[in-house]
Amino acid sequence: MSMMRAVVATAKHTHPLPRVVLTSLFLLIAVSIACTPSRSAGSPSLANINPAVVQSPAQTNKASAQEKPTCQLTLAGAPDIKGLRLGMTTEEVLALFPGSKDDAEVRASLSRPPSQFGVSGFLIRPAKYETKDKFEGINQITFSLLDGRVSNFTVGYNGPEYSHVDKFVAKFIEGTSLPAADQWEAYVGMDNSLKILKCADFEINVFIGGPGGNLNYVLVKDLEAEKKLKGRRDKARAKAPPPGM
Questions:
Q1: What is the residue extent of each domain of the chain?
Q2: What SS3 class is residue 245?
Q3: pTM
Q4: How far apart are CA 237 and CA 173, in angstroms?
């Protein structure tokens, strides 16, 4: 404002300035005065320039979770347990247990036709067959098949008793390409007794429990087969008539 008064005073006591020049000067001064407080009051701070520099605890935790290694193994990398693996046929499984074809319990299960979705199953008790020494410590193995191939199987153990599931996982992964126990996910509410490893094409559950560890088990699942089965069930459900029809 003082600058404007000075220009006006100068114009009065010296040679008059052309109207165009005066107009330009007044406009320049007005813009300068208007912008000065705006810059001082409204200049963005460093934090406003880059607000993403400071992350909230939630963002930090999320980033940490994303950095955690994930299992990228395909079905070919699924574990082989005493010769048992996903994708085997019934005949291939029974060949590991000589005499199982003539077992009444096994034959009864195999005589039942698959479900409408192609699911079948049977149970093997290794102690009943001549290869029992190979399966020492295992009391039973339950097989579920989709279209005649093993889609998941559960190996039940007689023990031993572990103080934490990580110790069972460490024992189980010996000689495999599976990641260490600290990369497996603990099941919420059963952190010390159940851990899960989800890979690209398969999943493994390892559980400890029971007196002396007699409820310990390992469950191996084919995720592609599981997805296929779910698709069939969803399709059948969509075709089903509404209730009451």
A1: 2-47, 75-239
A2: coil
A3: 0.71
A4: 39
